[in-house]
Structure formats: structure tokens, C-alpha cells
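Morning. Coffee machine broken again, so started the prediction first thing and wrote up yesterday's gels while waiting. Chain of 304 residues, entered below exactly as on the submission form.
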Amino acid sequence: MTSWLYIMGRGHSGSTMLDAMLGNAPDVESVGELVAGMGRYDDLCSCGETFNNCHFWKDVRLRYEAAAGVPWGRAVQDFMQQAHLKYFLKTLTAIPSDDWVQRFRKDCEYLAKAIGSTDKNIVVDSSKEVTRALFLLRFIPDTKVIQLVRHPVNVLQSHYSRLKKGGGFKFLRYRFTPKRWYGPFLFLSAIGWLVGNLFAEVVRCHGRKRSLRVRYEDLIAFPERELARIEEFIDVSLEIVKKKVRLKKSFNVGHNIGGNHMRMAGTFRFDPKKAKRKRLPRYYDVMVNIICWPLLWYYGYYGK
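Came back before lunch.
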């Protein structure tokens, strides 16, 4: 039976990289940000074809529709709706016998099987949405969740660089493209990091043994150690992944939808030097440390 490995976290946390790396293991299928990408028919899959024309996703859609007996478009609507933060409380208070829970649980199982087909035991979804993680942990017993945490200073630096290049800022599924006055958006990002990770801690309460916290900085500094932790957690060999890191070999990106631009390169090498960014302006650095200090301490960033 194909099971979910879900990556939960904040944007700009390195989930695209981890997703693609894990997808190089023989038993693992990496798909990127599934929830966001499954309805973007004209966007490119990492194979270079549009989602609508990609042979892999065409087969997934056909298998899903045959098993579920409903069109793919309805699945897109249901998955997008359930993953929204406004449905967190509904998902938290739902019971297994609820009609919508039973229906959506089957949809999740059909989709995992359609993606994994017959030769993949695990499907990695890096959508990061906490509401989807909550549903999977509560109602899909074989699900495992990785909470990927990155220091908010580095997250804000990523946002800051993108804003300066005109790339815009996304918050609660809304996109903003300010030309100047980035401060309010970086303030929102800091608040989002704190609140989002508090929600993630609530999610983990519903499956401590089926969830694992990984700090992005540890993954960059000690990749084989962290991959060994993940390997033990999911009980699937990641020897090929660790070997590629050790020998500095290229990772292949499969049919990933959603996620950042690195997935479109086709291949990439794990390079810790590329993870280093220019420092965030001092006033933003101070702001984010003041706002996020409780969880920064809890996650060990202050030498706990």
C-alpha cells in the first residue's frame, strides 16, 4: 500500500530541495507541492511539459478517476479547500464517522495509489499546509509528517531578496507586489512563521511518533546525519540519497509540480555554499528575533 510522507512547514524552508532529494530513493515518489500544483494545468512540470501534457500526470489522473469515480477537477477543488487554514478547526474537531472525512480519506488513498502506482511505497508531498498535515495524521494511519523548520531570519532574507527583484510576496494564498516599503510584508512573514509553527506543534500532538522535526540548518550542515534520521523514521532505505550527497553527485528531479524554481533545472547538486545568503538588514534581523524568540528557543536556535 502506498503511503504519504508529508512535509509541513513555512514557505522558503527548503522543502523543494528535501522533496526532490528523497525522490531519488527507489521506493519514493517525489511530486512537489501537490495541492498547489494539481490544478495548474498550464504550469510546467519539472520534466518540462505542462501539467496537462505530462505523461506521468496524465496517467495519475486516469488512475485516480477510475478508482474514485469522480473527475480530477473535483479532486482539485476538494484538496485545495481542505488544505486552507480556515478549515483547520473543522479538521481538528472532526470525527472519523463524519461523511466528509470518510469521503476525503478515500480520495487521499486513491490519489496516493494513483501516484505511487505499483513500484513506489511512499509519495512525498511538500505542500507544507498545516491543515492537510492535520487531516493526514488524524485520519490516514500510515501517514508520516516531517516538520521542516528554518530560522526565520533566513526565511525573511529569502522574502527580502525576492521582493527586491520584484518577485512579490504571498500570504494566505494572496499575492502582493510592492515596489517599496517592504517592512510590513516582512513583519507579516515573521508573524506567519511564529503562528504557522505554533499550528504545526498542534498538528504534531496528534501523532508524535509519526512526525519528525528537521531543522533546515542541520540538514545543510550535517546532511548524512539528518538523512539517517529520516531513513529510520520512514523505514525506507535512503542509501542512494546519502551516497549522492557524499560523492557530490547530481540529484534527478522527477515530475514535481509546485515548489520553487530549482525544480525546473532537471538536476541539482547538494551544495551547502549555495544555501548561504547575504545578511538581512539589521533592523529586520532584530524585529524577527523579538517576534519569534519563544519558538527560536524551543527549537534550539538559542543554544538550548
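The mean pLDDT is 91. Going to sketch it on the whiteboard this afternoon.
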